[in-house]
Amino acid sequence: MSESEIYFICGYTNPDSSIVNVSQKRFALPYVQFDVLINNLFSETNTSYEIHFDKDYQFISLDANPDIFKDKTIMISLSTAVLNHLLFPTYPDQGTIHCIISSGIDDNNKMSATDYYNIDSAGKVNIWKGEYDYDAIKDGLLGYLYIKNIDKDMLERKKANILSYAMKEFEGLIYDTGIHPSGGLGFIDDLFDLYEEESGKDRVSEQRDIFRMNLMLQAKHLLFFDYTCDLISKHSIKDSDHMCRRLKEMKYAWQRVINKLLIQTLAYSRKRTTTILIEARELIKQQRELVVELIEMLKQEYNL
Question: In this structure, what DSSP letter does residue 140 have?
């Protein structure tokens, strides 16, 4: 199963207004959390897995004995504040989450770890391997996933129905499916409305809010374009090459907006804020139109 297929089956595309605690986080989108994504992936299968996240997505340090991680390969979710191998710093109160793979803990409580998404100064994704003292990172532990065995046959059946999952995600981006009157893109529109409302009130606070927006758009929103292109290319949908070019152009346009947001955290400019708002709102409009076309393409070729 490819990354793009996992992405759509998990339901990663759309924020969900029912997510708890989101009102406490300024300038954040309520994207579905890890436990929900994993449960979406393995629902209606006989996959055996153990997942532990606090219901309010708080730290679980007191619940996690280090013995849990011995002699097992486990994905763990941590606050970036406790991960010193990451190049880019973050604000301690921003609640930024990062996942690494633990391959065991020795008798000295040293955890062997691998990070498959470690970004360098050039923006390149690298693999980092090293170790952490468990006592040094346990206070940043937000959750973990241990897969005991996978029901591959059922996952293959889900994979065969991937276009239906994709259609659901596309519709959720632009239509009212119970999460927002304007769909998932409505949340992003609201985010920039809030940015405009709050801009100029408190420069230090705004720079921190911009940092959160930047991380969210980079880590969540940009994934849509490459994964959608991969999906329609694999299924040889009519005009998929042309659509992929448009998806990539839109991704690059969003990347330019994100870069300008990042510059705002280093060298604030009110004029740049105005430019960001104009470009972001135009991109949201264009993305809505593009998603409508994707939906029509799938309806015409697959009668979905």
Answer: G
